[in-house]
Design brief:
CATH class of chain A: Mainly Alpha
Radius of gyration of chain B: 21 Å
Number of helices of chain A: 13
Number of domains of chain A: 1
Largest interface: A-B, 49 and 54 residues
Shape of chain A: globular
Largest sheet of chain A: none
CATH topology of chain B: MetI-like fold
Distance between the termini of chain A: 37 Å
Number of domains of chain B: 1
Oligomer: heterodimer
Structural class of chain B: mainly alpha
Order of helices and strands of chain B: HHHHHHHH
CATH topology of chain A: MetI-like fold
CATH superfamily of chain B: MetI-like
Largest sheet of chain B: none
Radius of gyration of chain A: 22 Å
Order of helices and strands of chain A: HHHHHHHHHHHHH
Helix content of chain A: over 70%
Number of helices of chain B: 8
Strand content of chain A: under 5%
Number of strands of chain B: 0
């Protein structure tokens, strides 16, 4: 306990560039998370639409695809991709990545991380979206059809706006999980916050005293808590605004892992 | 195809031992998660504000921190602080305490879902507090708690791979696959069988949970 509250250990964090180095690493995590979020939302919606399509030729493979990626450990997928992705893919990634991206994202290794995060999370989000769409009464689709709307128009104008609203809390919970999972790419040697934490804490003080590893990782944990709390606060505010605007409480659908959190926030 | 079967035939003992290490990690962590989670869930509905605050802080802290950070804190951080704990304790405690935050939320919402009217009704019928809990509240709460707990178990199986993949010297299924890959360079084959092992665990957990859910469902 004395070690934990020893002010010298905490002071070490703010000496020199230590804290800034950690924040720099954390920003890389945020950037990876943002890229993966955009990709998984797009791919997730496409997968969900395929999963509920009328054609069995589309439905069966989409279902199998979702079930496989959703049930494998994410870290397993990332490690496999980093070992198994063909080198030309990584080169192609290095070719198309924009120059203003930070240095850590320029390397082809990041492709495995982003691809793994996207494959896993798009499968989970597809299930959330499917539940949101299917939780609508069947009458909605039938009414749209009897009004003469073709499939795509009834999806775009009637089904999706209502269904997607229900899945906002579950999706935000999943995005928080995604944000936490960006730390996993440290295992394939991408220079993000966990790596920066290891680097910072592997140097000692002058005179041989050891760096305060515990404090370094507590600080990293605090960064994630702050960002994730902001995210869930934002989702709750969105929901309250929506309820005021439409006058009805949003029915929620639940996702996979963090659905417990989403469900508990209602009460 | 024959290469695939060949890898399994030659390295079956390694895969099997990794499979059981993963199984053991999940079993121990599940025990920690459920016992700590129940405790924290009780704190969150406690009549004292200070106790509720402790419960909320626990949940918000452990729910929003990456599991990998918890593993680093418990394995590297505590060691530097002079409290050395082994890989098994650090790994299962991290996974268990992390999941406990979610378990607490599941239990809290389960107890709330039963409704205050039921408690009032049962007490006014002359049942004691203990009989109210054991005969009225908990059987109904169990019904709403089982599905989320099942999902947490599945999430836990997947998260257990993080322990083996990070610094801990814990030879779980993923670790075994990595060792075999480094030895044989048959990336696709080794990872295929490890994936099969994980899918066996997660899909059978899904199956059991769905069965339980159906058995507990209210027939109308």
């Amino acid at each position: 306990m004395g070690y934990l509250i020893d002010p010298a250990n905490w002071e070490w964090l703010v000496t020199g560039n230590n804290l800034r180095f950690l924040v720099d690493g954390f920003l890389v995590n945020v950037e990876i998370a943002l890229i993966a979020i955009v990709l998984s939302l797009i791919l997730g919606l496409l997968l969900a639409l395929a999963r509920i399509s009328k054609s069995a030729l589309l439905r069966a493979p989409a279902g199998a695809w979702i079930d496989v990626w959703r049930n494998l450990p994410l870290i397993f997928v990332i490690l496999y991709l980093s070992l198994g992705l063909p080198a030309p893919w990584k080169d192609a990634y290095e070719g198309i990545v924009p120059g203003f991206f930070p240095e850590a994202l320029q390397s082809g290794r990041v492709l495995a991380g982003i691809l793994g995060l996207t494959l896993y999370n798009s499968a989970v989000i597809a299930e959330i979206m499917r539940a949101g769409i299917q939780s609508l009464e069947r009458g909605q689709g039938e009414a749209a059809a009897s009004l003469g709307l073709p499939y795509w128009k009834s999806m775009r104008l009637v089904i999706l706006p209502q269904g997607l609203r229900r899945m906002v809390p579950a999706t935000v919970s999943q995005l928080i999980t995604l944000n936490k999972d960006t730390t996993l790419v440290s295992i394939i040697a991408i220079q993000e916050v966990m790596r920066h934490g290891r680097i910072v804490s592997s140097f000692g003080f002058f005179g041989g005293a050891q760096a305060p590893v515990l404090q370094v990782f507590l600080t990293i944990g605090a960064m994630f808590v702050i960002v994730n709390l902001l995210l869930s606060r934002l989702s709750r505010r969105l929901e309250v605004r929506e309820r005021k605007r439409t006058g009805v409480a949003v029915e929620r659908v639940t996702g996979l892992e963090d659905q417990v959190a989403a469900a508990a926030d209602v009460t | 195809m024959s290469a695939l079967l060949d890898v399994l035939r030659r390295h079956f003992p390694e895969f099997l031992s990794g499979f059981f290490v993963t199984f053991r990690v999940v079993a121990i962590s599940l025990a920690i998660a459920i016992s700590v989670g129940t405790l924290v869930g009780a704190l969150r509905v406690a009549p004292l504000r200070a106790l509720r605050w402790i419960g909320t802080t626990y949940v918000e802290a452990f729910r929003n921190v990456p599991l990998l950070v918890l593993i680093f804190i418990s394995f590297l951080g505590l060691r530097r602080a002079g409290v050395g704990i082994g890989p098994w304790v650090a790994g299962t405690a991290s996974l268990g305490l992390y999941t406990a935050a979610y378990v607490a939320e599941a239990i809290r919402s389960g107890v709330f879902a039963v409704g205050k009217g039921q408690i009032d009704a049962s007490l006014s019928l002359g049942l004691t507090y203990r009989r109210t809990m054991t005969k009225i509240i908990l059987p109904q709460a169990a019904r709403t708690v089982i599905p989320p707990l099942g999902n947490l178990l599945i999430a836990m199986i997947k998260n257990s791979a993080i322990i083996g993949a990070s610094i801990l010297a814990l030879p779980d299924l993923l670790k075994q696959a990595r060792i075999l890959q480094a030895r044989t360079f048959q990336t696709n084959e080794t990872f295929f069988w490890a994936a099969a092992g994980y899918l066996v665990l997660t899909l059978s957990a899904t199956f059991v949970v769905r069965r339980l859910e159906r058995r507990l469902a209210i027939r109308r």
